[in-house]
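To: structure desk
From: M.T.
Subject: fold request, one chain
Message: Could you run this one when you get a chance? Sequence is below, nothing fancy, just the single chain.
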Amino acid sequence: MSRFPSKYLTTWGFSSTTFSGESVSRACSWTVTVERNAGHWGGPLATAGYLFGIGVSSVSLSPKEVAGMTSTSHALVCVGGGALSFAHDRRQDVVAPPLDALPVTVTIAIRPETPDVTVFTYKLASVADGRRVSLVGRRIIHDSALCSAAFPIFTVSQRVKILFPTYV
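Reply: Done. Structure tokens follow.
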């Protein structure tokens, strides 16, 4: 399993930044917490555009590629007014109504099933503004490259920061 020291990853400026973990080749999971960036409290989440993407890719993404928007990546993303979607190759399937507030905790789990099938499970939890939000879902991904090498990926915009746990 890939390991990162506990830390916040914060991006600055007007574009998103992507971070890739080390490749994993067996069933694993990772949990991150997404918070508002204190320096960007301006507008509401409904007008924020791309906020974050957390998922997996069959190749390590460059810092300028965006999770869920490439042909090699699959991710749970928060875009277009805070709506949560499952994204792959720029195609997005909405899985939940827009988020009203952050922070939110996202857990991603992947499990290779056969040489060309990976099970992608996600769990989202939030207690922001005293409201409890919980979402669990699963996607079956048909991609032989992902079964041999899977890179955890995280894209954050200038409006959010991600808190990594002790290991990812």
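Reply (cont.): Helices lie at 144-148. Let me know if you need anything else for the meeting.
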